[in-house]
Amino acid sequence: MILNRHYRFLFVKTAKTAGTSVEIALSKFAGAGDIVTPISAEDERIRKSAGCGGPQNYRVSPGARGAWNSLRRWIPLGKPDFYNHISVSEVRRLLTGAGGSSADGEFWNSCYKFCVERNPFDRAISLYYWCCRHEPRISLTEFLESPRLDVLRHHGLDLYTNADGTVAVDRVLRYENLAEELEEVRQLLGLPEPLMLPRAKGGHRRDLRHYSEIMTAHDRRIIEDRFQQELSLWNYAF
Length: 238
Description:
By secondary structure, the chain is an alpha/beta fold. It has one domain (about 1-235): Rossmann fold (3-Layer(aba) Sandwich), CATH 3.40.50. Helices cover about 40% and strands about 10% of the residues. The protein has helices at about 20-25, 40-50, 90-95, 100-110, 120-130, 140-145, 150-160, 180-190, 210-215, 215-225, 230-235, and strands spanning about 1-5, 10, 35, 60, 70, 110-115, 170-175. The strands form 2 sheets. A 5-stranded mixed β-sheet has the order 3-1-2-6-7, with helices on both faces. A two-stranded antiparallel sheet has the order 4-5. α1 packs across α2. The radius of gyration is 18 Å and the shape is globular.
C-alpha cells in the first residue's frame, strides 16, 4: 500500500495483479510523511536497486492514530497499523476514525484512490504457479478446488469494495492494459516522470499458454462460480 500526501493518492495493492511492481514504482515519489508498507525481503531488494525508498510510517504512535505529524517508523512488535494488502475501508477507518485528525479526514475525502484488477481466469493460473512453484505440485484442478483460491477474493474484490459491494476506489485499472492506464493516472496525479515497473514475483509460471488452453471445463466452472461478481463487474469472460 502507498499513501502519498503530496500527490494525494492511495494505492491499494491487490494480489497477482502486478501490485508489487506498481507499489515499488510509486514508492519512488514518497516523501518523508507518506506511508509505504513493507514487502518481502526479496522485493525490498528490488525496490532498493530501483533507487526507491523503503517502508516507512506504517505504524502510528500510540494515542495519535491517524495524525500525520505523529507518524514514525515501525517498531517491529505486533501487527502494524498499515500493511501490505490492507483494504480501502480499513485505511478509511485509520484516517477518519477516533483519533484521526481533521487533516487526515480532508485528505481522505479528496485523495485519488486506485488499484489493479485482472481477469480471474488468468489471475487464478498466476496464483497456482506462485503457490505451487516447487515440485512436486498438485494439479491445477486440485488447487482450484482448495481454500487457497480464496486469497484472490480476500486480496482482491474485498479490498476495494464497501460492505454493500459497491466499489470504494476512484479507478480500478486493468492488468491487461496496465501500462497505458498507469500513464493516464500518472498524468492525472501530476507525477513528474513515467512509472518504470520492475519485474517482481515473476518467473514462476512455466506454462505460458493462454488460460483457455490450460483449464478444463470443470476448472472454468469453478472460476465462474467463485468469481461471478468480478466477472460481471468488469465484463471479464473466458
